[in-house]
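agent> fetching stored inputs for the adenosine-5'-triphosphate docking request
agent> found them:
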Amino acid sequence: MIQLFMPLGFLGFVYREIKGSMANIENMFELLALKPAIVDAPGAQPLNCGPATVEFRSVSFAYNNNRPILDEVSFTIDLGQKLAIVGASGAGKSTLVKLLFRFYDATAGSILIDNQDIATVTQHSLRSVIGIVPQDTVLFNDSLFENVRYGRPSATDDEVEEAIRLAHLEGLVSQLPEGSATLVGERGLKLSGGEKQRVSIARTILKGAPILVFDEATSSLDSKTEQAILRSLSDIAKEHTSMVIAHRLSTVVDADQILVLQGGRVVEAGTHLSLLDRGQAYASLWHAQQNQPLSAVDDSASP
Ligand code: ATP
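agent> prediction call returned; pasting tokens
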């Protein structure tokens, strides 16, 4: 019997720990992620970050030595700009996000935020300046309102309500049996993928971090939900430095810069229109998604 109770008790402990002490949702990824022991460098200082610039400088990475995943990836996201990363499944897009959060250290090269190498600052300060809307949002067995509050546990009720409004969740809330007090999550009402993402956007708005990362869901959302999510995002992205991992190219049309990743290398970079004009890798992806014939597109698109 004790064998049964111990793991259950442990799970309860983990849940209470997460629920009670989480300053933001990323901490949960930190707890759950299978990651090597990344520790603060000796004498690490807090990151000094205003509205932020993010720079990847010749970043290479391998999860294990014999299989390179990223190869000399370089880009800069200027203050207030939106960078989109596109590419086939397995190209290394999510790995870039894991490195930005420092779940892993780059094998070579460096990542800088406001000119500070993230390997030299405290992990806590690094993660406090990044808000992420992940592919799969985890909802706790709590009300929708409290699920949003996880973004910043010290937020006032008014601030939580404002985040719900900015994330275009009001329509959903008005349909729930007990409004925002309705229990959601495993033992509560199940929300759709798009609704969960909007809860996640609300959390991120509440967190108020200067860097925003949106890891778009792979599953296709209906166009009404997609438009609602895009509206939510464009409202907040204006004042943030943002990085979007995109599967649906409709979300990247307005990006200041689009990177096309192939096999861990940046093979193209530019705006939507300049990349369409180029008629290579991005144009192929775009036309494939539009389901249009590739008249002017070179199928053998290569770097
Ligand atoms: P998707 O569009 O399918 O999400 P992606 O472009 O985001 O793909 P990544 O998730 O970054 O790709 O994965 C890049 C490569 O790294 C893949 O080949 C993947 O199998 C591998 N990979 C990812 N995570 C790990 C890990 N923890 N250990 C070993 N290999 C991994």
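agent> quick read of the result: Residues 31 and 243 are 23 Å apart (CA to CA).
agent> awaiting further instructions
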